[in-house]
Write a structure and sequence with these properties.
single chain, 325 residues, alpha/beta, five-stranded parallel beta sheet, 9 helices, elongated, binds flavin-adenine dinucleotide
Protein backbone atom coordinates (compact mmCIF):
# COMPACT_ATOMS: atom_id res chain seq x y z
CA UNK A 1 0.00 0.00 0.00
CA UNK A 2 1.67 3.29 -1.07
CA UNK A 3 2.36 5.54 1.86
CA UNK A 4 4.55 8.49 2.77
CA UNK A 5 5.83 11.59 1.08
CA UNK A 6 9.01 11.57 -1.01
CA UNK A 7 10.60 14.95 -1.60
CA UNK A 8 13.10 15.45 -4.43
CA UNK A 9 16.06 17.59 -3.38
CA UNK A 10 17.84 19.32 -6.26
CA UNK A 11 21.43 20.47 -6.30
CA UNK A 12 23.28 22.31 -9.02
CA UNK A 13 26.73 23.76 -9.29
CA UNK A 14 27.81 22.37 -5.94
CA UNK A 15 24.88 23.48 -3.77
CA UNK A 16 21.39 22.44 -2.83
CA UNK A 17 19.14 25.09 -4.30
CA UNK A 18 16.89 27.28 -2.20
CA UNK A 19 13.63 26.00 -3.66
CA UNK A 20 14.55 22.48 -2.54
CA UNK A 21 14.30 23.63 1.10
CA UNK A 22 10.91 25.12 0.22
CA UNK A 23 9.91 21.73 -1.21
CA UNK A 24 11.06 20.08 2.04
CA UNK A 25 8.84 22.55 3.97
CA UNK A 26 5.91 21.71 1.65
CA UNK A 27 6.50 17.97 2.03
CA UNK A 28 6.71 18.30 5.82
CA UNK A 29 3.42 20.26 5.87
CA UNK A 30 1.78 17.57 3.71
CA UNK A 31 3.22 14.81 5.90
CA UNK A 32 1.94 16.52 9.07
CA UNK A 33 -1.53 17.02 7.55
CA UNK A 34 -1.80 13.39 6.46
CA UNK A 35 0.10 11.85 9.37
CA UNK A 36 2.64 10.34 6.98
CA UNK A 37 6.40 10.10 7.07
CA UNK A 38 8.54 12.27 4.83
CA UNK A 39 11.65 10.93 3.10
CA UNK A 40 13.98 12.84 0.82
CA UNK A 41 15.81 11.68 -2.28
CA UNK A 42 19.04 13.15 -3.59
CA UNK A 43 20.59 12.05 -6.89
CA UNK A 44 24.30 12.08 -7.57
CA UNK A 45 27.51 10.21 -8.11
CA UNK A 46 27.96 9.98 -4.32
CA UNK A 47 26.13 10.76 -1.07
CA UNK A 48 27.59 14.26 -0.50
CA UNK A 49 24.37 16.26 -0.60
CA UNK A 50 22.34 13.53 1.11
CA UNK A 51 24.27 14.17 4.34
CA UNK A 52 23.52 17.88 4.12
CA UNK A 53 19.76 17.35 3.84
CA UNK A 54 19.81 14.71 6.61
CA UNK A 55 19.90 17.57 9.15
CA UNK A 56 16.21 18.16 8.43
CA UNK A 57 13.25 16.44 10.06
CA UNK A 58 12.94 13.51 7.69
CA UNK A 59 12.46 9.80 8.29
CA UNK A 60 15.35 9.02 5.93
CA UNK A 61 17.34 10.37 3.02
CA UNK A 62 17.79 8.15 0.00
CA UNK A 63 21.00 8.78 -1.84
CA UNK A 64 20.41 7.42 -5.34
CA UNK A 65 23.86 6.92 -6.78
CA UNK A 66 25.37 6.26 -10.18
CA UNK A 67 28.40 7.85 -11.90
CA UNK A 68 26.02 8.94 -14.70
CA UNK A 69 24.21 11.14 -12.16
CA UNK A 70 27.26 13.34 -11.61
CA UNK A 71 25.73 15.81 -14.05
CA UNK A 72 22.06 16.40 -14.72
CA UNK A 73 20.45 14.79 -17.74
CA UNK A 74 16.73 14.09 -18.06
CA UNK A 75 17.38 10.47 -19.13
CA UNK A 76 19.55 9.62 -16.12
CA UNK A 77 17.39 11.51 -13.61
CA UNK A 78 14.19 9.90 -14.88
CA UNK A 79 15.70 6.40 -14.73
CA UNK A 80 17.01 6.98 -11.21
CA UNK A 81 13.85 8.60 -9.86
CA UNK A 82 11.66 5.88 -11.39
CA UNK A 83 13.60 3.25 -9.47
CA UNK A 84 13.48 5.19 -6.21
CA UNK A 85 9.72 5.81 -6.52
CA UNK A 86 9.06 2.13 -7.37
CA UNK A 87 11.23 0.96 -4.46
CA UNK A 88 9.77 3.35 -1.86
CA UNK A 89 6.10 3.44 -3.04
CA UNK A 90 5.26 6.94 -1.77
CA UNK A 91 1.77 8.36 -1.99
CA UNK A 92 3.08 11.79 -2.96
CA UNK A 93 6.26 12.84 -4.75
CA UNK A 94 6.92 16.52 -3.98
CA UNK A 95 9.34 18.56 -6.09
CA UNK A 96 10.37 22.22 -6.44
CA UNK A 97 9.11 23.82 -9.68
CA UNK A 98 12.56 24.52 -11.10
CA UNK A 99 13.78 24.41 -14.71
CA UNK A 100 15.42 21.06 -13.99
CA UNK A 101 12.24 19.54 -12.53
CA UNK A 102 10.13 20.99 -15.35
CA UNK A 103 12.50 19.24 -17.72
CA UNK A 104 12.39 15.70 -16.37
CA UNK A 105 9.31 15.43 -14.08
CA UNK A 106 6.64 15.09 -16.83
CA UNK A 107 8.64 12.19 -18.28
CA UNK A 108 8.89 10.61 -14.82
CA UNK A 109 5.15 10.99 -14.19
CA UNK A 110 4.41 9.53 -17.64
CA UNK A 111 6.39 6.39 -16.76
CA UNK A 112 3.78 5.79 -14.06
CA UNK A 113 0.92 6.73 -16.38
CA UNK A 114 0.32 9.84 -14.25
CA UNK A 115 -0.04 13.55 -14.80
CA UNK A 116 2.00 16.19 -13.02
CA UNK A 117 0.24 18.72 -10.78
CA UNK A 118 2.69 21.49 -11.45
CA UNK A 119 3.52 24.94 -10.14
CA UNK A 120 1.19 24.77 -7.13
CA UNK A 121 0.88 27.80 -4.88
CA UNK A 122 -0.80 26.09 -1.93
CA UNK A 123 -2.53 22.94 -0.78
CA UNK A 124 -5.26 22.00 1.64
CA UNK A 125 -5.75 18.60 3.22
CA UNK A 126 -9.19 17.52 4.39
CA UNK A 127 -9.07 14.06 5.86
CA UNK A 128 -7.12 12.01 3.38
CA UNK A 129 -8.04 14.22 0.40
CA UNK A 130 -5.58 16.90 -0.68
CA UNK A 131 -6.52 19.83 -2.91
CA UNK A 132 -3.65 21.52 -4.73
CA UNK A 133 -4.12 25.04 -6.04
CA UNK A 134 -2.36 26.32 -9.14
CA UNK A 135 -2.68 29.59 -11.03
CA UNK A 136 -4.09 29.46 -14.54
CA UNK A 137 -4.66 31.99 -17.33
CA UNK A 138 -1.62 34.06 -16.35
CA UNK A 139 -2.67 34.30 -12.74
CA UNK A 140 -6.22 35.48 -13.44
CA UNK A 141 -7.82 32.34 -11.99
CA UNK A 142 -6.97 29.62 -9.49
CA UNK A 143 -7.60 25.96 -10.27
CA UNK A 144 -8.14 23.49 -7.42
CA UNK A 145 -6.80 20.07 -8.38
CA UNK A 146 -7.52 16.79 -6.62
CA UNK A 147 -5.66 13.70 -7.85
CA UNK A 148 -7.87 10.74 -8.64
CA UNK A 149 -6.74 7.18 -9.06
CA UNK A 150 -3.86 5.22 -7.63
CA UNK A 151 -0.74 6.85 -6.16
CA UNK A 152 1.90 8.08 -6.66
CA UNK A 153 0.82 11.67 -7.11
CA UNK A 154 3.49 13.92 -8.61
CA UNK A 155 3.36 17.56 -7.54
CA UNK A 156 5.63 20.58 -7.89
CA UNK A 157 5.48 23.81 -5.85
CA UNK A 158 6.12 27.30 -7.15
CA UNK A 159 9.13 29.15 -5.78
CA UNK A 160 7.93 31.16 -2.78
CA UNK A 161 4.83 29.00 -2.11
CA UNK A 162 6.55 27.75 1.06
CA UNK A 163 9.38 29.33 2.97
CA UNK A 164 12.68 27.46 3.05
CA UNK A 165 13.42 28.54 6.61
CA UNK A 166 10.18 26.88 7.69
CA UNK A 167 11.67 23.50 6.80
CA UNK A 168 12.01 21.85 10.20
CA UNK A 169 15.39 20.65 11.30
CA UNK A 170 15.68 17.25 12.92
CA UNK A 171 17.91 14.91 14.84
CA UNK A 172 19.79 13.68 11.79
CA UNK A 173 17.95 11.40 9.40
CA UNK A 174 19.60 8.18 8.28
CA UNK A 175 21.19 8.28 4.84
CA UNK A 176 20.41 5.19 2.77
CA UNK A 177 22.57 4.74 -0.32
CA UNK A 178 20.76 3.11 -3.27
CA UNK A 179 22.72 2.07 -6.33
CA UNK A 180 20.48 2.79 -9.30
CA UNK A 181 20.65 1.56 -12.88
CA UNK A 182 20.85 4.24 -15.53
CA UNK A 183 20.23 3.27 -19.15
CA UNK A 184 21.31 5.09 -22.26
CA UNK A 185 21.90 8.81 -21.77
CA UNK A 186 21.17 10.46 -25.09
CA UNK A 187 22.20 13.99 -24.27
CA UNK A 188 25.36 15.74 -23.21
CA UNK A 189 24.84 18.58 -20.74
CA UNK A 190 26.10 22.03 -21.55
CA UNK A 191 26.77 24.84 -19.10
CA UNK A 192 23.68 25.44 -16.94
CA UNK A 193 21.18 27.94 -18.26
CA UNK A 194 21.53 31.44 -16.84
CA UNK A 195 18.37 33.51 -17.15
CA UNK A 196 20.03 36.80 -17.90
CA UNK A 197 23.71 37.54 -17.85
CA UNK A 198 24.62 39.01 -14.46
CA UNK A 199 20.93 38.93 -13.57
CA UNK A 200 20.01 40.26 -10.18
CA UNK A 201 18.73 37.42 -8.02
CA UNK A 202 16.09 39.18 -5.97
CA UNK A 203 14.89 35.87 -4.56
CA UNK A 204 17.77 36.05 -2.08
CA UNK A 205 17.03 39.62 -0.90
CA UNK A 206 15.79 40.11 2.66
CA UNK A 207 14.40 43.57 1.95
CA UNK A 208 12.89 44.82 -1.31
CA UNK A 209 11.62 48.30 -2.08
CA UNK A 210 9.47 48.13 -5.22
CA UNK A 211 8.20 51.03 -7.27
CA UNK A 212 5.13 51.19 -9.48
CA UNK A 213 3.62 53.64 -11.89
CA UNK A 214 2.90 55.95 -8.95
CA UNK A 215 6.59 56.94 -9.04
CA UNK A 216 5.75 58.92 -12.21
CA UNK A 217 9.23 59.33 -13.71
CA UNK A 218 12.58 57.58 -13.94
CA UNK A 219 14.30 60.40 -12.02
CA UNK A 220 11.99 59.85 -9.03
CA UNK A 221 13.27 56.28 -8.59
CA UNK A 222 16.20 57.82 -6.68
CA UNK A 223 13.73 58.51 -3.87
CA UNK A 224 12.97 54.81 -3.53
CA UNK A 225 16.64 53.92 -3.88
CA UNK A 226 17.45 56.09 -0.86
CA UNK A 227 14.83 54.23 1.17
CA UNK A 228 16.20 50.89 -0.05
CA UNK A 229 19.68 52.00 0.97
CA UNK A 230 18.76 52.81 4.59
CA UNK A 231 16.87 49.53 4.82
CA UNK A 232 19.80 47.64 3.30
CA UNK A 233 17.48 46.38 0.58
CA UNK A 234 17.24 45.97 -3.17
CA UNK A 235 15.19 47.97 -5.61
CA UNK A 236 12.50 46.29 -7.72
CA UNK A 237 9.51 47.31 -9.79
CA UNK A 238 6.15 46.50 -11.30
CA UNK A 239 6.03 45.70 -14.99
CA UNK A 240 5.19 49.14 -16.44
CA UNK A 241 8.40 50.51 -14.87
CA UNK A 242 10.53 47.86 -16.58
CA UNK A 243 8.54 48.09 -19.83
CA UNK A 244 9.37 51.80 -19.86
CA UNK A 245 13.05 50.96 -19.42
CA UNK A 246 13.23 52.91 -16.14
CA UNK A 247 14.68 49.81 -14.45
CA UNK A 248 16.12 46.68 -16.08
CA UNK A 249 13.81 43.71 -16.66
CA UNK A 250 15.61 41.60 -14.04
CA UNK A 251 14.14 43.94 -11.39
CA UNK A 252 10.56 43.10 -12.37
CA UNK A 253 8.42 41.29 -9.82
CA UNK A 254 5.39 39.28 -10.88
CA UNK A 255 4.05 36.58 -13.14
CA UNK A 256 6.38 37.57 -15.97
CA UNK A 257 9.17 38.64 -13.62
CA UNK A 258 10.77 37.26 -10.50
CA UNK A 259 8.98 35.56 -7.62
CA UNK A 260 10.29 36.78 -4.28
CA UNK A 261 9.57 36.22 -0.61
CA UNK A 262 11.72 38.70 1.35
CA UNK A 263 11.29 39.48 5.04
CA UNK A 264 10.14 42.99 4.10
CA UNK A 265 8.52 44.15 0.84
CA UNK A 266 7.78 47.85 0.50
CA UNK A 267 5.43 48.63 -2.41
CA UNK A 268 5.47 52.28 -3.47
CA UNK A 269 2.74 53.43 -5.86
CA UNK A 270 1.86 49.88 -6.92
CA UNK A 271 -1.84 49.14 -7.38
CA UNK A 272 -1.64 45.41 -6.65
CA UNK A 273 -2.65 43.78 -9.94
CA UNK A 274 -2.78 40.00 -9.65
CA UNK A 275 0.20 39.62 -12.00
CA UNK A 276 2.25 41.63 -9.52
CA UNK A 277 0.84 39.98 -6.40
CA UNK A 278 1.73 36.44 -7.51
CA UNK A 279 5.37 37.47 -7.44
CA UNK A 280 5.50 38.91 -3.91
CA UNK A 281 2.50 37.80 -1.87
CA UNK A 282 4.59 35.38 0.20
CA UNK A 283 6.76 38.16 1.60
CA UNK A 284 6.80 38.03 5.42
CA UNK A 285 5.83 41.67 5.92
CA UNK A 286 4.30 43.84 3.22
CA UNK A 287 4.19 47.62 3.56
CA UNK A 288 2.24 49.53 0.91
CA UNK A 289 2.19 53.24 0.20
CA UNK A 290 -0.59 54.30 -2.15
CA UNK A 291 -2.75 57.38 -2.37
CA UNK A 292 -5.81 55.30 -3.32
CA UNK A 293 -7.37 53.73 -0.19
CA UNK A 294 -9.16 51.20 -2.43
CA UNK A 295 -5.96 49.95 -4.10
CA UNK A 296 -5.95 46.11 -4.03
CA UNK A 297 -2.38 46.10 -2.67
CA UNK A 298 -3.91 47.02 0.71
CA UNK A 299 -5.80 43.68 0.74
CA UNK A 300 -2.53 41.84 1.26
CA UNK A 301 -0.48 44.54 3.01
CA UNK A 302 0.42 44.09 6.68
CA UNK A 303 0.93 47.85 6.99
CA UNK A 304 -0.71 50.36 4.69
CA UNK A 305 -0.01 54.04 4.35
CA UNK A 306 -2.69 55.91 2.42
CA UNK A 307 -0.87 58.92 1.12
CA UNK A 308 1.27 60.54 -1.51
CA UNK A 309 4.53 58.62 -1.79
CA UNK A 310 6.39 61.84 -2.54
CA UNK A 311 5.47 63.05 0.95
CA UNK A 312 5.68 59.70 2.76
CA UNK A 313 8.95 58.26 1.42
CA UNK A 314 11.30 61.17 2.34
CA UNK A 315 9.87 61.25 5.89
CA UNK A 316 10.16 57.47 6.22
CA UNK A 317 13.75 57.55 4.95
CA UNK A 318 14.74 60.34 7.36
CA UNK A 319 13.12 58.64 10.36
CA UNK A 320 14.81 55.35 9.55
CA UNK A 321 18.15 57.13 9.23
CA UNK A 322 17.63 58.64 12.69
CA UNK A 323 16.72 55.23 14.13
CA UNK A 324 19.88 53.77 12.68
CA UNK A 325 21.88 56.62 14.24
C1 LIG B 1 0.35 38.74 -19.36
C2 LIG B 1 0.61 39.80 -18.35
C3 LIG B 1 1.71 39.66 -17.53
C4 LIG B 1 2.00 40.64 -16.59
N1 LIG B 1 3.09 40.49 -15.77
C5 LIG B 1 3.32 41.41 -14.82
C6 LIG B 1 4.41 41.25 -13.91
O1 LIG B 1 5.18 40.31 -13.96
N2 LIG B 1 4.57 42.21 -12.97
C7 LIG B 1 3.76 43.30 -12.84
O2 LIG B 1 3.98 44.11 -11.93
N3 LIG B 1 2.73 43.46 -13.69
C8 LIG B 1 2.50 42.56 -14.68
N4 LIG B 1 1.49 42.76 -15.55
C9 LIG B 1 0.80 44.07 -15.54
C10 LIG B 1 -0.27 44.19 -14.47
O3 LIG B 1 -1.50 43.70 -14.98
C11 LIG B 1 -0.46 45.64 -14.06
O4 LIG B 1 -0.77 46.41 -15.21
C12 LIG B 1 0.76 46.26 -13.38
O5 LIG B 1 1.20 45.43 -12.33
C13 LIG B 1 0.40 47.61 -12.84
O6 LIG B 1 1.56 48.23 -12.37
P1 LIG B 1 1.46 49.39 -11.30
O7 LIG B 1 0.79 48.91 -10.08
O8 LIG B 1 2.83 49.95 -11.16
O9 LIG B 1 0.60 50.52 -12.04
P2 LIG B 1 -0.89 50.98 -11.84
O10 LIG B 1 -1.82 49.84 -11.86
O11 LIG B 1 -1.10 52.09 -12.80
O12 LIG B 1 -0.90 51.56 -10.36
C14 LIG B 1 -0.25 52.71 -9.94
C15 LIG B 1 -0.65 52.96 -8.49
O13 LIG B 1 0.06 54.06 -7.99
C16 LIG B 1 -0.80 54.81 -7.16
N5 LIG B 1 -0.28 56.18 -7.14
C17 LIG B 1 -0.25 57.09 -8.14
N6 LIG B 1 0.37 58.22 -7.72
C18 LIG B 1 0.74 58.01 -6.44
C19 LIG B 1 1.42 58.79 -5.46
N7 LIG B 1 1.86 60.03 -5.75
N8 LIG B 1 1.61 58.27 -4.24
C20 LIG B 1 1.19 57.01 -3.93
N9 LIG B 1 0.54 56.22 -4.81
C21 LIG B 1 0.33 56.71 -6.05
C22 LIG B 1 -2.17 54.70 -7.81
O14 LIG B 1 -3.19 54.92 -6.85
C23 LIG B 1 -2.14 53.27 -8.33
O15 LIG B 1 -2.71 52.38 -7.37
C24 LIG B 1 1.17 41.79 -16.49
C25 LIG B 1 0.06 41.90 -17.31
C26 LIG B 1 -0.22 40.92 -18.23
C27 LIG B 1 -1.44 41.05 -19.09
Amino acid sequence: MPNGILVFVEHRQGAINKTSFEAVAAAQALGAALGQEVSAVVLGADAGFAHEIAGYKLSRVISAENPKLAEYTPDAYTDAMEQVVRATTPQYVVMPHTYLVRDYAPKLAARFGKGLISDCIRMKAEGSSVTFTRRIFLGKMDADVVAKGEPPVFVTFQSGAYRGEQAERGEGASVEPMQVEVGEVRMRPEAPFQEVKQAVDLSKADVIVAVGRGIKSQENIALAEKLAEVLGGDIAASRPICDAGWLPIDRQIGSSGQTVAPKLYVALGISGAIQHLVGMKNSSTIVAVNKDPEAPIFDIADYGIVGDLFEVVPVLTEELKKLKG
